[in-house]
Each structure stands twice: as structure tokens, then as C-alpha cells.
Design goal:
- The chain is an alpha/beta fold and 475 residues long.
- The protein has two domains: 197 residues, Aspartate Aminotransferase, domain 1, CATH 3.90.1150.10; 256 residues, Type I PLP-dependent aspartate aminotransferase-like (Major domain) (Aspartate Aminotransferase, domain 2, 3-Layer(aba) Sandwich), CATH 3.40.640.
- It contains 13 helices and 19 strands.
- The chain has a seven-stranded mixed beta sheet, with helices on both faces. The protein has a four-stranded antiparallel beta sheet with strand order 13-14-17-16, sandwiched between helices. A two-stranded antiparallel sheet has the order 1-2.
- β11 and β12 form a beta hairpin.
- The model has no long low-confidence stretch (mean pLDDT 95).
Length: 475
């Protein structure tokens, strides 16, 4: 598939371009089955057109900026063209700059360094965030600010009334609101523009962790003079069918114009002597060292593919899958779903469903799905421990007890859930196979004898292990 064919690109056609779509894995009984990947919220597989575009570029690959050779100049041009494609993708205006990072986590850490306390003895700034956040939008803020949390409604959505009350209570003191665009646990899509307007009314800025949102919904940061504009936005390529290791921070230029860059070294300074350094203009001053040029090319191409297909097709497909899965899961009394379980609301959320089977450990369920069903899911707390503990109703006392167990290297009772998450290539047939396996698990019809590794909190079938060298080797 070349760029010339993108004009009439359909989602069905693009879904067939997923690399590894027909690969088979070995099951516990020795048979093989086509792998089912329901772990897209963690990382999506790569797309063949992205791989091809990277291959096209590799013959011209060189380091960017300051090189006078043709390859270096071409690579620099490609690098900046990709930056423009990304800015257009999120509708960033001229007041924003696009900064390349390793991933969303590094992007948020880079942004957090801009909100550090200005001097010793000064009171830390307040950052308002929520109990729904991924650790990447929680832990970086703890290093630099006093973090205040917005509570949740019983269904796991953010409590708008509490948000409003906390904005009012800390008005004039809040520097930033940090919120996810969509939950990686329940798939809830947050009203980021409404939150932005309310934040701006009290003089605060807003930063949106869009790692889950960007692959599934269109994003419009809006112009800076719009009360609902997004000041900072971060997302990753590895969740957008371009897993070559790049993340993006798009943000208000003014936050990065002054002071020392977050990381310093090659490419960040205009001139250096033994006593001083003068920093380059944005965005170069914030992109220390040789950047991941290949990752940038891959992300830009993935974005072009998504734009050509259009979010309408993506939303329609993933909504249908989510509604179908919820209908099927709702018919199984032993399944507990966390968050909205109504199929009629599937269009208002992402295709991310967290659940448990009554009386069974989430790690055991996920292990059986893998070893006996060839189905890849994720289990645990999904790097959102406070949120998952709220959803599961874990008491503070119970949380402290489990915390001590983990410190003692025993993860056998770590709370959590099983998570399935859909991409553009998943099918209803795959969901049917998942449901079939869950029914077998509930009826105890699985074959293996599973042993718990307490230190890791994971289950393994006794007497069996995958022979990974049969599938990939460096030889």
C-alpha cells in the first residue's frame, strides 16, 4: 500500500495491513491457534505501510540539523515535516510547539519540570488532578507540586461537582489541572474542553494525557484565545500502530522559553564556553541529543493513515465491538464489569473493558486465556493503582496490608482486574472466542494445573513453558 492508495482507504483495508495479524502461537496442549490480541491499550501492533515508509526513509537516514550533506538536509526536512503533520493532527496553533520525547511518560515528566517551586522556602504550586489517572499523570506532579485530587462518582467517572468545588476552593493557587483524555481502565472519555474552560476561569492551565485518546478520537487543542483550549497535550506512537519509540509533548511555547532545558547536551545550546551556555530556540533546546528520527517518521505516517481512514470509521468499528462484548459479558453472571456496562453507551467510551470472574484471581484468568486460548489480555492495576482500588472497593486498611506484602516480595494478593482493549483490526469472532474461553474457565474446564509465583504475582502452567526461540532468535 503506497501513499497514492490512501485516497480511498477504508478501515477494512487498513486492518488487513496489521503486521503479524495471522501469526499462530502454541497452546498448552501443543496445538496452534491464531493469536488474538486484546491488549491494544498497552501497545498496538505495527502497520505494514508504516514499516514500508520507514524502509523508504532508511536509505536517506542521517542525523538532523547542522549537517550540510544532502542526507542530513533531507532528514532534517523530513523531521520538521513530521512535526507539522503532528501539529495539524491535534489542531495546535502558532503559540504551541511540538517537542519529541521517548513516550507520554517522559513528556509529562518534562512538562512537570516547568512547574517546580521557584525557590527554596517557597510554597509548592498546586496541581489539581484526579483519582482516575495513570501513574504517568500522577507521580511526576508529586515531585514538583502539592497534588490535590478530584474524587470519583460511584461508577468511576470523574465527579464534576467535586472538580468545580476544588477549583473554587483553591482558585488563584492552582497552576495546573492534569487530567487524562480517556481512562486506560474503564474507557471513559473525559470532557476535557469543559474542564479546560473551568480551569482557565480560575487562572490555571490544563494538561491532557492523551495516550489513550489520540488513537481513537479526534483531538482539537483549539486556539489560545478560545476559553476551552488545551494548554498541553501528550501522547505516544506505540499506541497508534507505530511502535518505534516516540512520544510527543505539544504545549504553550511560553512554558519552555526561560530557564535551563530539562535535559542539556548536544543540540540544545547555541554557544558554550567554560562558564556559560546559551540555549537554542524551541523546540531544539528541549530535544537533547540525537532524536529518534525513525520513530518520528513512523508516527507521522501512522497519523496520515488514521487521517485518511477518518475517525468516523474507527469510532463506528470500535463502538460496535465494545457494544458486542458488553452484551456477551453481561450474559455471564460470574463476570463483574468495572465502569459502564451498558452496550447502548458504547459510542461514548473507548473499547477498553476491565472485569473479573467472581472467586478467581485476575492473574489466573489471564494466564489461562493466554496458555489455553492464545488470547493476549492485560491484568493487574494497569499503572492506575488508586483508580483500580477505588473501583474494586479496596479499603485503606486492606491496601496497607497488601502494600506490606508487596514490600516483603509477596504479590499473591495484589488487587486487580482483567482488561481487554480493542483496535482497528479486532473482530466479533475474536470476542466470541474470548467468551467461549471465559465460559470454560468459569466451568473449570481448563486443562492446566497452574502454579502461583508469589514474588511476581503470576500464574504458570506446571511443566510447560513457551519456546520463544522457535518464534524469534538473534542468530
Amino acid at each position: 500500500m503506497s501513499g497514492k492508495n490512501y485516497k480511498n482507504l477504508s478501515l477494512k483495508k487498513l486492518a488487513k495491513q496489521v503486521i503479524g495479524l495471522d501469526e499462530e502461537v502454541v497452546l498448552l496442549d501443543g496445538s496452534k491457534r491464531k493469536y488474538i490480541n486484546f491488549d491494544n491499550a498497552a501497545s498496538t501492533p505495527a502497520l505494514l505501510p508504516v514499516q514500508k515508509k520507514v524502509g523508504e526513509f532508511l536509505k536517506w537516514y542521517s542525523n538532523v540539523h547542522r549537517g550540510t550533506g544532502f542526507k542530513s538536509q533531507l532528514s532534517s526536512w523530513v523531521f520538521e515535516e513530521a512535526r507539522n503533520i503532528i501539529a495539524d493532527f491535534v489542531k495546535a496553533d502558532e503559540h504551541c510547539c511540538v517537542i519529541f520525547c521517548k513516550n507520554t511518560t517522559e513528556a509529562i515528566n518534562k512538562l512537570s519540570s516547568r512547574f517546580q517551586c521557584p525557590a527554596l522556602g517557597k510554597e509548592k504550586p498546586i496541581v489539581l488532578t484526579t483519582l482516575q489517572e495513570h501513574h504517568s499523570n500522577e507521580l511526576p506532579w508529586r515531585k514538583v507540586a502539592q497534588v490535590i485530587h478530584v474524587g470519583l462518582n460511584p461508577d468511576g467517572t470523574i465527579d464534576k461537582n467535586d472538580y468545580h468545588e476544588k477549583l473554587k476552593k483553591y482558585a488563584g493557587k492552582i497552576q495546573l489541572v492534569a487530567v487524562s483524555g480517556a481512562s486506560n481502565v474503564t474507557g471513559y472519555i473525559n470532557p476535557i474542553h469543559e474542564f479546560a474552560r473551568m480551569a482557565h476561569e480560575v487562572g490555571a492551565q490544563i494538561a491532557v494525557d492523551a495516550a489513550q485518546l489520540a488513537p481513537h478520537r479526534p483531538i482539537d487543542m483549539k486556539p489560545r484565545n478560545d476559553p476551552e483550549h488545551i494548554d498541553y497535550l501528550s501522547f505516544s506512537a506505540h499506541k497508534m500502530y507505530a511502535p518505534y519509540g516516540i512520544g510527543v509533548l505539544v504545549g504553550d511555547r511560553s512554558a519552555f522559553l526561560y530557564g535551563t532545558p530539562d535535559d542539556v547536551g548536544g543540540g540544545t545550546a547555541d554557544i558554550v564556553d567554560l562558564e556559560s551556555a546559551y540555549w537554542k530556540d524551541l523546540p531544539e533546546r528541549e530535544e537533547a541529543g540525537t532524536p529518534d528520527i525513525i520513530g518520528v517518521v513512523a508516527l507521522a505516517e501512522a497519523i496520515r493513515l488514521i487521517q485518511k481512514v477518518g475517525f468516523d470509521q474507527i469510532i463506528k468499528h470500535e463502538t460496535a465491538l465494545t457494544a458486542y462484548a458488553l452484551k456477551k459479558l453481561n450474559k455471564i453472571p460470574e463476570v463483574i464489569i468495572y465502569g459502564d456496562r451498558d452496550p447502548r453507551n458504547a459510542h461514548n467510551r473507548l473499547g477498553v473493558i476491565a472485569f473479573n470472574i467472581k472467586g478467581m484471581h485476575h492473574a489466573l484468568v489471564s494466564a489461562i486465556l493466554s496458555y489455553e486460548g492464545g488470547i493476549g489480555v492485560r491484568n493487574g492495576c494497569f499503572c492506575a493503582h488508586p483508580y483500580v482500588k477505588c473501583l474494586l472497593g479496596v479499603t485503606p486498611e486492606e491496601a496497607k496490608r497488601i502494600e506490606q506484602m508487596i514490600i516483603n516480595r509477596d504479590r499473591s494478593e495484589v488487587p486487580g482486574a482483567v482488561r481487554i482493549s480493542f483496535g482497528i483490526y479486532n473482530t466479533k469472532k475474536e470476542i466470541d472466542l474470548l467468551i467461549e474461553m471465559l465460559q470454560k474457565i468459569i466451568k473449570k474446564e481448563y486443562r492446566g494445573k497452574y502454579v502461583l509465583d508469589k514474588e511476581r504475582g503470576e500464574y504458570y502452567p506446571e511443566g510447560f513453558e513457551f519456546k520463544f526461540k522457535d518464534f524469534f532468535d538473534f542468530d
